[in-house]
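Q: I'm a student working through a structural biology exercise. My instructor gave each of us a protein and asked us to get a predicted structure, then write a short paragraph describing it. Mine is Winged helix DNA-binding protein. I'm not confident about reading structure output yet, so if you can add a plain explanation after the tokens, that would really help. Here is the sequence I was given:
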Amino acid sequence: MDELDPVIHAQSRLRIVAVLAALDAGESVTFPRAQELLDMTAGNLSTHLRKLEDAAYVEVTKTHSGRTPVTYLALTTRGRRAFEDYTDSLRTLLGER
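A: Happy to help. First, here is the predicted structure for Winged helix DNA-binding protein. I'll explain a few features afterward.
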């Protein structure tokens, strides 16, 4: 069995990636909506997003709606593949394959 991806394996990052993986490819979610879905503080979410962004698993896009800043989060193709590999490794570990 391949080693579980340590970037994704941390509980908070696994939850973030799972939420983003539930979106269709190319879709994104706003930072406040992700924060609400994950029940995480802004600081905690930001810290984990930085690690996922550094690994090129998550894309963070900052824009404006009028004068209000809006941050969108999306799983990259690389992040989606990493999550699929991670879940495949878990299935193997659990004897489901």
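A: Here are two points you could use in your paragraph. Residues 63 and 70 are 5 Å apart (CA to CA). The longest strand covers residues 58-65. It's a good idea to check both against the output above yourself.
Q: Great, thank you!
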